[in-house]
Design brief:
TIM Barrel, 9 helices, four-stranded parallel β-sheet, alpha/beta
């Protein structure tokens, strides 16, 4: 029996965390800004610098703001332009997610972004976990050409949604990749692989590290916003793969 080839995707929040994830052995990067809001589109310069610096597969998220996944025409226009920029910069794919007011997939505009991205791959992110009927959404995303779905099984943590993820992966039947995410850690990734049959896994491994500033203004001494930076421990990325193997 040929052993499975597992793929580890890490969500990063800037150039430094991307560099750490790559050093740790990430197979793919979901490049974001503002991970505390679930991730928004990183700047053009950040995408460009990461593309120039790292050979790893690079998928920027295309999300103009935090909050829900019901977008105005102006917001969609922004998303469309960002997709085109990612294609021009030589990214490997993009990460998108758009819903209608009634909790169904926004087929028309999702299809337009997939078309604009071609030949880049397209991941539909955890907007999927807010849709009304995950199995109907699964078939729609297969039909319109999405490459994969990032999902926690419609629960805040994938550990609680593992049964639905397993059902989705069976229904997908290799027509689309189902990628568990949200709460994936070294302590549970092996269980998730065994319970779901999935081979791609998404984790943010969000951490903080103290600022290297020599001068700390006394009024902001306890301010995490001022003196704590986003960080990813490269060993933490490697630990995910070790736990799978």
């Amino acid at each position: 029996m040929i052993p499975k080839k597992y793929i580890i995707e890490i969500a990063t929040s800037d150039f430094a965390t991307t560099q750490s994830a790559v050093v740790g052995g990430a197979d793919r990067i979901e490049l974001c800004a503002n991970l505390a809001e679930g991730g928004t589109t990183p700047s053009f310069a950040t995408i460009k610098k990461c593309r120039e610096s790292f050979a790893v597969s690079l998928y920027p998220i295309i999300r103009p703001r935090g909050g829900d996944f019901l977008y105005t025409k102006d917001e969609f226009d922004i998303m469309l332009q960002d997709v085109k920029l990612c294609r021009q910069l030589g990214c490997d794919g993009v990460v998108i997610g758009l819903l209608n007011r009634d909790g169904t997939i926004d087929i028309v505009r999702t299809s337009a972004l997939i078309e604009a991205a071609y030949p880049l791959g397209v991941t539909f992110h955890r907007a999927f976990d807010r849709c009304k009927d995950p199995f109907a959404a699964l078939e729609i995303l297969i039909e319109i050409g999405c490459e994969r779905i990032l999902t926690s099984g419609q629960e805040p943590s994938v550990v609680d949604g593992v049964d639905l993820v397993s059902e989705l992966n069976k229904k997908a039947d290799e027509r689309i990749i189902i990628m568990p995410g949200s709460g994936v850690r070294k302590e549970n990734i092996k269980m998730l692989a065994e319970r779901t049959g999935c081979v791609e896994f998404h984790s943010s491994l969000r951490g903080k590290e103290p600022s290297k500033m020599g001068f700390i203004h006394p009024a902001f001494n306890d301010s995490g916003e001022s003196y704590l930076n986003n960080a990813i421990d490269p060993d933490g990325v490697n630990d995910l793969r070790t736990a799978l193997d």
